[in-house]
TrEMBL record:
Organism: Pristionchus mayeri
Keyword Manganese: no
Protein name: Aqp-4
Keywords, in A-Z order: Membrane, Transmembrane, Transmembrane helix, Transport
Keyword Metal-binding tagged: no
Lineage: Eukaryota, Metazoa, Ecdysozoa, Nematoda, Chromadorea
Family affiliation: Belongs to the MIP/aquaporin (TC 1.A.8) family.
Membrane topology: Multi-pass membrane protein
Length: 343
């Protein structure tokens, strides 16, 4: 660009070659008829007059060159200063005029219906994957297999759908979001209904794929308290603790943070750790939608229901509610970036 502005008249004949050189250096140079710069060009456009008397230009040649330069490389003030200091033909110079840059299109917001559908779809996939992973070779470590299956699934779901609905896929997470002000209260019941319906449909998909014998063998993918070795309060404490860990991670890495590139990974790993830690006690559900769907569909299609199927089902509601509430209280007290109670 400076080469073009600093040439004297004797150097104008090779101007075309310099224009090609500048183009190769990523400066787009366009010859056009004398008029104002194109409106709508997505860069700053400047117009320069060149004399008609040059032997290298014909009568039909345009007398104006538009130089389009992106704002990071050329500001209007810099361009004006260079022209006034280096151009040798001020009588042919016109004041530089930037083109009108059209405003960027505003992204369309997602409606509440869309957000609820995404929560429904996410829970359908989550419960389906979590139930189907139980249909494995008996020689494999079932807890480790379940942990990574659930963790990877939630990682993928939060990464792909989190920007639409927040990527809750869990009534306990939605409760924590509502308690901390990250989810409007009137959205909470709609989110929960969508999540529960998604869990039921995910379990139906599992039943549609597996035979009745296979479906019964995995207990419909249900998460159950090991009543033979654990008591109800151990199960309640277990579900409360792992739900607290999950909601605590989500509140600090996703909901309460403006920098979220690693949030899906953190959430997925937290879920994996929780299942490894307490999977043999309660199945580490942490999610009423994950528990209700398989329980309902299993109850409808299985001939024999084991003890504790409904007797201890309340653990999978009370535990996540307690865990989400404690995580929200800790977040309000110590961790919220704005308006936390303890400085």
């Amino acid at each position: 660009y400076q080469l073009l502005l600093t040439q004297d008249e004797s150097a104008y004949p090779p101007l075309g070659r310099k224009m090609i050189l500048c183009y190769q250096l990523s400066f787009f140079i366009e010859c056009k008829s004398p008029s104002s710069p194109h409106a709508g060009t997505p860069s700053l456009v400047y117009s320069l007059n060149f004399p008609h008397s040059l032997t290298s230009w014909t009568e039909d040649s345009p007398d104006r060159v538009s130089v389009a330069l992106s704002p990071p490389y050329m500001s209007q003030a810099w361009a004006s200063e260079e022209v006034h200091h280096h151009h040798h033909h001020p009588e042919h110079h016109e004041e530089l005029q930037p083109a009108v840059i059209p405003p960027l299109k505003k992204e369309r917001d997602y409606t509440l219906i869309t957000k609820c559908f995404v929560e429904f779809l996410g829970d359908l996939i989550f419960v389906f994957a979590g139930s189907m992973q139980g249909y494995i070779n008996s020689s494999m470590d079932s807890i480790l297999h379940a942990a990574f299956a659930h963790g990877l699934t939630i990682f993928v779901l939060v990464t792909s759908l989190g920007h639409i609905s927040g990527g809750h896929f869990n009534p306990a997470v939605s409760l924590a979001g509502a308690l901390t002000g990250h989810l409007p209260l009137f959205h909470l019941p709609l989110y929960v209904v969508a999540q529960l319906l998604g869990g039921i449909c995910g379990s139906l998909m599992t039943r549609a794929i597996l035979s009745k014998t296979e479906f019964t063998a995995i207990l419909g993918g249900a998460t159950l308290l090991s009543a033979d070795t654990n008591t109800w309060y151990q199960g309640l404490i277990s579900e409360s603790m792992v739900t607290f860990m999950l909601c605590h991670t989500i509140l600090n890495s996703a909901m309460g943070s403006s920098d979220k590139p690693l949030a899906p990974l953190a959430i997925g790993f937290t879920l994996t750790i929780d299942i490894i830690a307490t999977g043999r006690i309660t199945g580490a559900s942490m999610n009423p939608a994950r528990s209700l769907g398989p329980n309902l569909i299993g109850w409808a299609f299985m001939d024999t229901i084991p003890y504790g199927w409904w007797e201890y089902h309340y653990i999978y509601w009370a535990g996540p509610i307690i865990g989400a509430s404690i995580a929200s209280a800790v977040y309000w007290l110590f961790e919220r970036r704005e308006k936390r109670i303890v400085p």
